[in-house]
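Limitations

Structures in this collection are predictions, not experimental determinations, and the ligand pose is part of the prediction. Treat each record accordingly. The example that follows, with nicotinamide-adenine-dinucleotide as the small molecule, is included so readers can see exactly what is and is not provided: the inputs are given verbatim, and the output is the predicted complex.
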Amino acid sequence: MSRLENKIAFITGAARGIGKGIAEAYAREGASLILTDLQADLLQETAEEIRALSTGRVSAFPMDVRDGVAIAEVVSKTIKEFGRIDILVNVAGVIRINLVVDKPEEEWDLVVDTNLKGPFLVSKAVVREMLRLETKGKIVTIASLNSKEGEAYTSDYAASKHGLWGLMKSLAYELAPYHINVNCICPGYVDTELQRGCERMEAEAKGKTWQEIRDYYAAKIPFGYLATPAEIGKVAVFLASSDADYMTGQAVNVCGGAIMH
Ligand SMILES: NC(=O)c1ccc[n+]([C@@H]2O[C@H](COP(=O)([O-])OP(=O)(O)OC[C@H]3O[C@@H](n4cnc5c(N)ncnc54)[C@H](O)[C@@H]3O)[C@@H](O)[C@H]2O)c1
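Predicted complex:
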């Protein structure tokens, strides 16, 4: 039996990268999926690809995680169409590269609003439905190695991801009485558009070539290479499945050993 058979999973940031990797892994495990993302056209293309893998139903809705009104609409459509949400996966996120002394305030706001306020707004809307419908759900949030470590050039990102881990720990306490599990995955460096964009911005900021920065990242990882989204997908399946029923409030590193705490 597939591990997510008959489960309904709601994923943010699903159009590409880690969100898409998780959607593919969930589709292979039999889940029905609600895919959401800011990029409407790319999201529809991704949804087509995921439908080809899935035995469940797949719907796709454009949604900005910073927009509480849009989130309420999409969650309400989801409940009408699917009846409930069993699994919420918070993935949508952005990164910008600048030293604190050079960082424009708008950049800080974009990163913190997307990576921290976004999961707050989405979790709030989805959890309300889980509680109303008495769903013993699972929340899987993509945090980061930067939920536990700072790094130069990404202070806003590290602040948002530390905050996200704090938000999810508090939510784990609040939802334990209802048997809703709340856990984070902390990826290290995953080869996605976000990571590549980050490498390009960092190369420019440090006056290095892109390859030099890619090598620098690989050298930070004991395994010596970056993860694929599929690696994160495997752990996201585990945390959404009944195998993780006794886990809550945990932040699981999937980082090739880049950090060990
Ligand atoms: N790639 C890595 O190395 C890495 C490492 C640790 C954590 N993460 C986290 O994983 C998550 C996904 O990252 P990725 O590498 O797949 O990035 P990505 O840029 O490839 O994908 C992110 C997706 O989120 C969407 N998105 C951005 N802002 C949004 C918004 N306001 N509302 C809705 N959707 C929005 C984008 O359109 C995109 O499809 C992020 O939270 C990121 O911080 C990534």
